[in-house]
Design brief:
The complex is a heterodimer of chains A (about 525) and B (about 350).
Chain A (H helix, E strand, L loop, with lengths): L22 E12 L2 E12 L3 E5 L6 H8 L7 E6 L2 E2 L5 H6 L2 E4 L11 H5 L14 H15 L14 H14 L4 E5 L7 H16 L3 E5 L3 H7 L2 E6 L2 E7 L5 H9 L17 E10 L3 E9 L3 E6 L5 H8 L7 E6 L2 E3 L4 H6 L2 E4 L3 H5 L6 H6 L8 E2 L2 E2 L1 H15 L15 H13 L5 E5 L7 H16 L3 E5 L3 H7 L2 E6 L2 E7 L5 H8 L2
Parallel strand pairs in A: 3-8, 3-9, 6-7, 7-8, 13-20, 13-21, 16-19, 19-20
Antiparallel strand pairs in A: 1-2, 1-4, 4-5, 9-10, 11-12, 11-14, 14-15, 17-18, 21-22
Chain B lengths: L1 H5 L3 H10 L1 H25 L7 H26 L7 H14 L20 H24 L4 H19 L10 H4 L4 E4 L2 E4 H19 L1 H11 L1 H6 L4 H27 L10 H11 L11 H20 L4 H27 L2
The chains are: A alpha/beta (about 525), B mainly alpha (about 350).
């Protein structure tokens, strides 16, 4: 699936370790049900000390549930967990932590208004003679810990002021401070830049050399071959296989994950390219990006490549009016338009699937129906203020079938859907507005292989129907496979626009890398 | 289970049943509390709590003003906000309405030239006063970044001050009988039904429909559920919040008019701490302070629960100090139970 992504350009090579070490953690016959639905069925696997063990599987395969069992968040309905050969009861996350099992969650769990050192040593703070917290000692311990891991963050800074990557480093340091034998990382690189990933992998190598067992959940195939010693694949709540990563190929892993071959990942349909729909002229958001100019035509998919933090998402947000431009102009169908709110962008026929499903996409506590219909209510489906629920319901139903959103009912809360199905529902939200310009920011991030292919097919056929599509992606294969043209962004500047025929990985890498 | 297997329409009904599950369980709680007072009544007072038409109508009359406020504050809470100013608005709008509803027999009328007016003028003036405060609340949120708690705390204090300044602290009496008519009862099918109760139920019905079936309602839930996503979906959050707070203010104004009419007079301290009862009614009725969920039907039931508890305590001749202590405990208990229930449901 993922050929080397942009983030994978240069990285330290893997340190190979002895595969036949003793089992640090053994999980035997774990079973977990939720209201009669089996989430884990008789799962067993072993983690050896001093190895990185990657877990792969589609969303909903059971990886996260298993990790929550191992870190004491869920209690299993059956099976045993052995740590260093002794059976352990993991009743709470704190109990697991005290036994040396630490989990670094996708949503980081740090207290923003407290300092780095306070976060790391919380509930274990050194005290002085008066029983007050000894801040000098606290910072000294933190500095020593950071030196060991080669982390350069001032222990006295507030966590709230740190970048996401640095917060992750703090989380890792915190886990290490517990002398954790088992460290669980849930998609740690999903928000990191290339250099940060490099740093993370250095830290992982240090920990591995110290004998820590690391469980590494990821969707990125290239990481697997770079950092993992062993790979376990999960499907539908069952453990399918565990292999040494050196014995596997990309295709093997995909086949095990989906239980079938995926012949064509990027089903690009040749579409008739029409007139220019959107012209962006010298668009600038001061301090973020400068002087962006391009044309977008009907039926075209314009891929946008660039490193994380280069300003790709900011450009999309400005075009859609989320953060209005400081200068520059836009033309829709050759007419000048002023777009300073999402509302005005929608009036020009634009739609914008945001990068972050949770933060700016889903209304997690509302139903799928309510999530899908909300944008369309801006322009139609209402009479005298009353929602035309029947008509809207039918349209949503049609879209749901077309997009293959898997759910028993539209009245389900969207939070209960898998990432892929949430994404399809959000695409449905925008299709209901009958857009002419569709901006997609990382449309397949964090989505399993099957749903990914479906979303690609969907994007392709929408372009074939005459939609103009801007697609931002960090995955080069996705960009190359889907785009008619590729626009490259480096540090807030447009560095090139390549035609499908001339675009290849090396050219794009040269244009986006610093 | 067997019924579902036979009847193909059964799935529909189970779906709609689950939609109102919260309200249903709250209604059961309401009935349970009433039965508890009935039993305690026979044991300690030797009298029936429920078999007393007058008492039942007083229960609902007493809470109708709180209920009108609660309908407004429920909508505010659904957007993820809070309105602390509603009690003060009751005081102000009661004063404003009363000042225009004085009878010419009062030699010390506030506006001697404006006595014996048609009741429509004091009603409009009172409601308008509330609307203005609501627009100010909403405007503060739309134009600045201050949290709703602070904005409405500010207006709560200010508005109470204005209500006192209006007559320099003096009460207003001798209102026209036409105006006081709003506080009266009517005979509906042989039952005496106070007009304030009808106003409460009418307001509740309107906003139950508005929240469930209009764009206004859909946007209100969306803003509370995820403001960023709402903005990207094209909703103008600022102007919508102005609408929601304006409606809450208008309803508080209406509650103030009703309060003045029932008392046939007005004092600047009217409605003190009503905002807390209104918020409690909404929260007991299942509205989450986190925003994005809640329904008017639940709030109506929450209001009735508060009313039954208060009148039950009076009926059992429990002193007012104890009543307050128990009321506080009950509010906390209701929310704890609700959260427990939700967390159990979410775990599924």
């Amino acid at each position: 699936m993922t050929e080397p992504s942009i983030a994978a350009a240069t990285r330290p090579t893997k340190i190979t370790t002895d595969r036949e070490g003793p089992a640090l953690l053994s999980v035997r016959g774990i079973r977990k049900e939720f209201a009669g639905v089996v989430a884990l069925n008789d799962v067993s696997f072993e983690l050896r000390a001093g190895t990185v063990h990657a877990l792969m599987g589609e969303n909903g395969a059971g990886k996260s549930t298993l990790m929550k069992v191992i870190s004491g968040i869920y209690r299993p309905d059956g099976g045993t967990i052995l740590l260093n050969g002794r059976e352990v009861e993991l009743t709470t996350p704190l109990a697991a932590l005290d036994l040396g099992i630490a989990m670094i969650h996708q949503e980081l769990n740090l207290m923003a208004p407290m300092t780095v050192a306070e976060n790391i040593w919380i509930r274990r703070e050194p005290r002085n003679r008066l029983g007050l917290i000894d801040h000098a000692e606290l910072n000294r311990r933190t500095a020593a810990l950071f030196a060991e891991l080669d982390i350069r963050i001032d222990p006295d800074r507030l966590v709230g002021d740190l970048s996401v990557a640095n917060r992750q480093m703090v989380e890792i340091a915190k886990a290490v401070s517990y002398n954790s034998q088992v460290l669980i990382m849930d998609e740690p690189t999903s928000t990191l830049t290339e250099r940060e990933v490099e740093h993370l992998f250095r830290i992982i190598n240090t920990l591995r050399a110290k004998g820590t067992g690391i469980i590494y959940i990821t969707h990125k195939m290239n990481e697997l071959f770079e950092i993992a010693d062993e790979v376990s694949v999960f499907r539908d709540g069952e453990h399918i296989a565990t292999r040494a990563s050196s014995d596997l190929t990309r295709d093997d892993v995909i086949r095990m994950m989906v239980g079938r071959d995926i012949s064509q990942m990027f089903p690009k349909v040749p579409a008739e390219i029409g007139d220019v729909v959107l012209s962006v002229r010298n668009l600038t958001l001061r301090g973020v990006f400068d002087d962006i100019s391009f044309d977008l035509r009907a039926g075209e998919i314009l891929g946008v490549a660039g490193l994380v933090g280069a300003g790709r998402s900011n450009i999309a947000e400005t075009i859609f009016g989320v953060t209005p431009a400081t200068s520059g102009s836009m033309l829709v169908d050759g007419r000048h338009v002023v777009i300073d709110t999402p509302r005005t962008a929608m009036q020009q026929g634009m739609a914008f699937l945001t990068e972050d499903r949770k933060d700016t996409g889903c209304f997690l506590n509302l139903t799928i129906q309510e999530n899908m219909q909300i944008a369309a209510l801006q322009s139609g489906f209402h009479r005298n203020g009353f929602v035309e629920q029947r008509r809207l319901g039918q349209e949503c139903q049609t879209l749901r079938e077309a997009l293959r959103v898997k759910t028993p009912s539209m009245e389900q809360k969207i939070v209960n859907l898998s990432g892929g199905n949430q994404q399809k529902a959000l695409i449905g939200r925008w299709l209901l507005t009958k857009p002419r310009i569709l901006i997609l920011d990382e449309p397949t991030r964090g989505i399993d292989v099957g749903a990914k292919a479906e979303i690609h097919r969907m994007i392709s056929s929408l372009a074939a129907e005459g939609l103009a599509v801007i697609m931002i992606s960090s995955e080069l294969p996705e960009i190359l496979g889907m785009s008619d043209r590729v626009m490259t962004i480096r540090q807030g500047k447009l560095t090139g626009i390549l035609d499908r025929a001339e675009a290849d990985q090396i050219k794009i890498m040269e244009l986006v890398a610093q | 289970m067997t019924a579902r297997a036979i009847d193909p329409g059964a799935l529909e009904t189970t779906a709609s049943k689950s939609k109102y599950q919260n309200e249903l369980s709250m209604a059961l709680v309401l009935v349970g509390i009433a039965i508890m007072f009935e039993i305690l009544g026979w044991i300690f007072v030797g009298d029936s709590f429920l078999a007393n038409q007058q008492r039942l109508s007083i229960i609902i009359l007493q809470v109708s003003v709180i209920g009108i406020l609660a309908v407004g504050v429920t909508q505010v809470i659904i957007t993820g906000g809070i309105d602390l100013s509603s009690g003060s608005v009751v005081g102000l709008s009661a004063m404003v309405a009363a000042s225009l509803a004085q009878s010419s027999t009062d030699p010390r009328a506030l506006f001697p030239a404006l006595t014996d007016l048609m009741p429509v003028w004091p009603i409009l003036a009172g409601v308008l006063a509330g609307l203005v405060v609501g627009v100010i609340n909403g405007g503060l949120l739309a134009k600045t970044n201050i949290p709703p708690f602070i904005a409405t705390l500010g207006t709560m204090v200010c508005v109470r001050g204005i209500a006192k300044w209006y007559t320099l602290g003096q009460p207003i009496g001798l209102l026209t009988p036409e105006f006081s008519w709003i506080g009266r009862s009517f005979n509906v099918l042989g039952f005496p039904v106070p007009l304030p109760v009808l106003i409460f139920l009418f307001v509740a019905l309107i906003f139950h429909v508005a929240l469930g079936y209009t764009r206004y309602g859909k946007f209100t839930y969306a803003i509370g559920a995820n403001p960023q996503a709402a903005r990207v979906s094209g909703i103008n959050i600022g102007s919508h919040l102005i609408k929601v707070y304006a409606i809450a203010g208008l309803l508080s104004g209406l509650a103030g008019v009703v309060t003045a009419a029932r008392a046939a007079s007005a004092q600047p301290t009217m409605g003190t701490a009503y905002e807390l009862d209104a918020i409690a009614a909404a929260v007991i009725g299942g509205t989450s302070l986190a925003g994005g969920s809640g329904r008017i039907l639940g709030t109506v039931i929450g209001t009735l629960i508060l009313g039954v508890i208060m009148s039950g305590f009076t009926f059992l001749k429990i002193g007012s100090y104890y009543q307050e202590i128990m009321k506080g405990a009950i509010i906390v208990a209701a929310v704890v139970i609700d959260q427990y229930r939700r967390s159990r449901k979410d775990r599924v």
